[in-house]
Design goal:
- There is one protein chain.
- By secondary structure, this protein is mainly beta.
- It is 9% helix and 43% strand.
- It has two domains: 129 residues, Immunoglobulin-like (Sandwich); 104 residues, Immunoglobulin-like.
- The longest helix is centred in the C-terminal third of the chain and has 13 residues.
Length: 275
C-alpha cells in the first residue's frame, strides 16, 4: 500500500498552453517491460500544436532507474542518428514486483517518476471470429475479431494494455492503437474481442501475436485520454486539444513512466478454421 501512495502522490493533471508549447516541456516516453532485452527511454522537447512531427530529441541527459540497491543506467548508443534515446540491456531480466524510480537530469533540471511492477495473467488462448456487423453485411470488407481468453487475477483493480503483431510486425505503435482493459466489469474467466483486422490484410498461414502488459490505473487513464483527446496524429503532445493530461513525472515534465510484466500468445490464421 505504501508504494501505491507514493505513486499516486506523483500523479498530476497537466494543462497544456497550446498557443506556444514548442520546446517548453520535456517529454518522456518510458515503458519498461520484462519482455525484451533492450529497454529504452526517449527524451524530447515538446513541439508546436500545429506540428505533427516529434519534438527534438534531447541528448547528453542523465537517465537511470533504481529500486533499493538496484541501479540501472541508461546510455545513448547513437546520439547523432537516434537523438534522445537511452538504452539499457540489464533491467528487463532483473525486474521484480516492487516500486521503481525513474530519475532524469536535463541541463541542471531533475525529473522523477515512480512505477510499481504488477503481475499479469497468462493468456490461455486466442481465437478469430468474423465480426458480427461484418457477417450481417454492414461492412464493405470482411472484418475479423481477435479474441483473447484468460483467467483474471484474483485481486481487484487490475489494468491491462494489449498490443498485437502480424508476422512479428507491430500493428499497434501509437497510443490510440492499444487495447485497454480494466477488470472492473470482468468475470473470472475472460473472453474479449480485443482487436479487429481486415481480411484483406491476411493470408493463410499468417501469425498473429498478442502481447498483454500489466499497467496502473493512472497509465490506463493516460492512454484513454489520448484515445479520446488526440487528433490521431501519433504525437499526443503535438496536436492535443485543451485537456487535463495525466502524468507521473515531476517538475513539469510530460509523458509517463510505466514498468510492466508481459505475456504473449500467438495464433496462426487459417480461413477454413474460422468460427
Amino acid at each position: 500500500m505504501a508504494g501505491m501512495l507514493v505513486w499516486t502522490s506523483c500523479e498530476k493533471d497537466v494543462i497544456l498552453d497550446l498557443s506556444d508549447v514548442e520546446g517548453q516541456y520535456v517529454i518522456v516516453e518510458a515503458n519498461i517491460t520484462d519482455g525484451e532485452k533492450i529497454q529504452w527511454v526517449k527524451l524530447s522537447y515538446s513541439s508546436s500544436y500545429y506540428d505533427v512531427t516529434r519534438g527534438q530529441g534531447i541528448n547528453n541527459a542523465s537517465v537511470k532507474i533504481e529500486s533499493g540497491d538496484d541501479v540501472f543506467i541508461f546510455e545513448q548508443w547513437n546520439p547523432d542518428t537516434l537523438p534522445g534515446y537511452y538504452y539499457n540491456t540489464e533491467i528487463s531480466q532483473q525486474l521484480e514486483e516492487k516500486i521503481y524510480e525513474l530519475s532524469i537530469e536535463v541541463e541542471g533540471e531533475k525529473f522523477t517518476a515512480f512505477s510499481e511492477l504488477r503481475p499479469v495473467p497468462s493468456m490461455d488462448s486466442l481465437s478469430i471470429k468474423i465480426n458480427p456487423f461484418s457477417s450481417l453485411g454492414f461492412t464493405q470488407d470482411t472484418i475479423y475479431d481477435i479474441f483473447v481468453h484468460f483467467r483474471d487475477l484474483p485481486t481487484e483493480g487490475n489494468y491491462y494494455l494489449f498490443n498485437y503483431a502480424l508476422n512479428d510486425t507491430l500493428q499497434t505503435p501509437r497510443p490510440t492503437d492499444k487495447g485497454l482493459v480494466s477488470d472492473e466489469n470482468l468475470e473470472e474467466t475472460v473472453s474479449l474481442a480485443i482487436f479487429n483486422i481486415n481480411r484483406n490484410n491476411l493470408k493463410d498461414g499468417d501469425v498473429i501475436t498478442l502481447e498483454i502488459r500489466s499497467i496502473s490505473r493512472e497509465n490506463f487513464d493516460f492512454y484513454n485520454i489520448f484515445f479520446f483527446q488526440t487528433d490521431l496524429s501519433g504525437n499526443p503532445f503535438a496536436g492535443a486539444p485543451p485537456a487535463n493530461i495525466p502524468t507521473n513525472l515531476s517538475e513539469g515534465a510530460r509523458g509517463f513512466f510505466q514498468v510492466s510484466a508481459t505475456g504473449r500468445k500467438s495464433i496462426i490464421f487459417h480461413n477454413e478454421n474460422l468460427e
